[in-house]
Design brief:
By secondary structure, this protein is mainly β. It has no helices and eight strands.
Length: 127
């Protein structure tokens, strides 16, 4: 992850819950079979003290996937109690591919290392 910048955007109307909702912008840099960068809109309901919460993210990726250059969007979410990662969702947005990634569909997954490194993989088809 290259940057994580919380925004001033807040849900309206304000609704008080046990976990605050926040919105941030992220930038990621990728190396390996996935080379490039992504811009992410990141939303979460998260409790800093316990590490529990859920996030939903929409990423716009540009670069190369297994040597194919282009861009596409993907969405992902997960929930944690602070010690785990459950209820994961990961999907490539159909119709969003450009260049050699035009027609890309499918899914994938992500793990987050203890140092904060994000590791992604894509299970995809090109139509």
């Amino acid at each position: 992850m290259k940057s994580f910048v919380p925004t001033d955007v807040v849900p309206e109307p304000a609704v008080a819950t046990a976990m605050p909702v926040g919105i941030a912008r992220m930038e990621k840099q990728f190396e390996g079979e996935i080379v490039g960068r992504s811009a992410t809109l990141f939303t979460s309901a998260f409790d800093q003290s316990s590490g529990a919460g859920t996030y939903v993210a929409m990423e716009s990726f540009e670069g190369e996937l297994n040597g194919r250059a282009g861009a596409f969007n993907f969405a992902h979410s997960a929930t944690t109690s602070g010690e785990d990662r459950v209820a994961e969702f990961f999907v490539i947005v159909a119709g969003s591919g450009t260049g050699a990634l035009t027609g890309i569909t499918g899914g994938g997954g992500m793990t987050v290392d203890a140092d904060g490194s994000h590791r992604l993989w894509f299970d995809y088809e090109l139509g």
